[in-house]
Write a structure and sequence with these properties.
Blueprint (H helix, E strand, L loop, with lengths): L6 H64 L1 H10 L8 E6 L2 E6 L17 H80 L1
Antiparallel strand pairs: 1-2
Helix pairs in contact: 1-2, 1-3
């Protein structure tokens, strides 16, 4: 649908163009902030994954040693005495409108839930290593969820910025040019008409 070239429509088109440009700048700034936020997190997640892999390997080695020295049945009986962990509390913080999870950190020292009679130092070592794995896994889950959410927000912001930059702003710019050209042509015609009328008088 063609726009009627009036001064009122020109004012509205210019206002829309200003808003679109401001919107693009905001989207661009948001995207840059989110990219900066995600870059550091990716390095941390990779480092955390390496730590978990190492700690898991150590934990399984300790568990294997405990199984050999105490017997699998004894180790299983001790494992059943350890209660399930339901202490995780999830809160959120906002980064440029993106909800980022914050998992509660368990700062308490690991507590042994079994007696010393049916255990040995290798079992204690396995228990402590798996407790460390649990803590690291919690931190990695928080990091990876944050990275996923930020990446999704960056993708969405990029789409909107592209739509503004490649479709909306050029369309409005074209409309402003069309109306400006039409009004200038109208003014020239009016000027020539007045000149002719003046010459005839």
């Amino acid at each position: 649908m063609a726009v009627i070239p009036t001064k009122n429509n020109l004012i509205n088109a210019r206002r829309s163009l200003t808003l679109a440009n401001v919107g693009y700048e905001l989207m661009d700034r948001k995207r840059n902030i989110l990219i900066r936020e995600i870059t550091g997190l990716i390095d941390r997640a990779q480092e955390m994954q390496s730590r978990i892999d190492y700690t898991f390997a150590e934990a399984y080695n300790s568990l294997q040693a405990a199984n050999i020295t105490l017997g699998i049945d004894s180790v299983n009986a001790v494992a059943e005495s350890v209660p399930a962990d339901d202490s995780i509390v999830i809160r959120y913080r906002s980064v440029m409108g993106v909800e980022i999870p914050l998992l509660s950190k368990d700062e308490s020292k690991p507590q042994l839930y079994y007696g010393f009679a049916g255990s040995n130092s290798m079992l204690d070592e396995a228990y402590l290593r798996f407790t460390e794995v649990k803590k690291l896994t919690r931190e990695l889950a928080e990091l990876e969820t944050t990275i996923y959410r930020l990446a999704y927000a960056i993708k969405k912001t990029q789409k909107r910025a592209n739509a503004l930059s490649n479709i909306i702003i050029p369309n409005i710019t074209g409309t402003v040019k069309f109306i400006t050209d039409a009004l200038e042509e109208k003014d020239r015609e009016e000027f020539v008409r007045l000149k002719v009328i003046k010459a005839q008088k």
